[in-house]
Amino acid sequence: MIDNLYKSSATSKAADVQELFIDIRKILLATDGSQSSIMATKQAIAWARFFEADVRAIYVESDYEMLESPYMETEKHLKGKPGVGRCAEVLDAVKNYAEQNDVNLETRVLRGQVARTIADYAEVYGPDLIIIGNSEKSGIKRSLGSVVDAVMKSTDVPVLVISDN
Amino acid sequence: MGRQDEVRARSDFSEVDFKMKRLLLATDGSVPAIMATKYAIALAKVFNASLKIIFVDTSEDEHDYSRNIVMLDTPKEMRQSTAGVSIAKIYADKNKVNYNIEVVKGNVAKAIIKAAANYEADLIIIGNTGRTGLKRLALGSVSEAVVKDSAIPVLVIKGS
Q1: Cβ-based contacts of A42 with chain B (< 8 Å)
Q2: For chain A, what is the HEC assignment?
Q3: Does a structural domain hold residue A15?
Q4: Which residue from B54, B73, B81, B141 has the fewest beta carbons nearer than 10 Å?
Q5: Considering the domain boundaries, does residue B7 fall inside one?
């Protein structure tokens, strides 16, 4: 994503400093249809339009077994908000929106523990940027860590987080 | 789906307001922060945006003598902080990015969010630096705290 990385920060001299360039060719958008992920979708399309990048939108359907998820993400899905069965609807909306904005976007539905699945898919797709919504705010869920925190821990790809704060 | 629902569904995704005119970079001179510095400057260039570079000084007030003694014992920490801002300045100059630098005080995450709000930043860029070990287990990283509370989009860069 970024060129001309320089090696040693401690010995940086003005003469060594090069011009920086950034290019974003592939964006990975993780969505679940929540308010923050609608905002994340808008950002993803805007960034894609600006950089003429491709977007891959993924919806991770969480495994239903509680033991599979240390983040209690499954609980949200079991209650049917915002997850279960909505993936096609959500991804269709994202796809339509991309088409309206002349952005090349493909969708995928994945299954597994949410954060790990996003990070694993990033390995496969090789994006220059991951964009994700964040709506976790407080309480038990927070103390266990959010999906976003877990994604940030499990990938080296820059992560753009959009909150509905 | 009725006509009204269709219209409503579309308006959910109304036009994007992609304004990237003011970027805020928080740096402490750590490796991830220097990576974030490079992203911030490259983005400021490509977006033709202004950049605010902040360093959060977490030292207590001057009357906290014990803290001052600790700081004397750890000049490396001080050097690193100054280096973060200096490196950002060098890159910004080289890349002809319009910037200004500010040193702010207080809780790191809160100070970053406050500075970004004051600056009316469109994007916050930070490295995933921060606390290590037990402190991190208890409190989480600075980037996590910023992400949790910021209403402004946050770009988190890993140092590798």
Answers
A1: 13, 16
A2: CECCCCCCCCCCCHHHCCCCCECCCEEEEECCCCHHHHHHHHHHHHHHHHHCCEEEEEEEECCCCHHHCCCCHHHHHHCCCCCCCCHHHHHHHHHHHHHHCCCCEEEEEEECCHHHHHHHHHHHHCCCEEEEEECCCCCHHHHCCCHHHHHHHHCCCCEEEEECC
A3: no
A4: B73
A5: no
